[in-house]
Amino acid sequence: MGARANRHRGEIEADFGGERRVLCLTLGALAELETAFAVDSLEGLAERFSTGRLKADDLIRIIGAGLRGGGNLFGDEEVAAMPVADGLAGFARIAADLLQATFGTGEEARNPR
Question: What is the pTM of this model?
Answer without folding.
Answer: 0.86
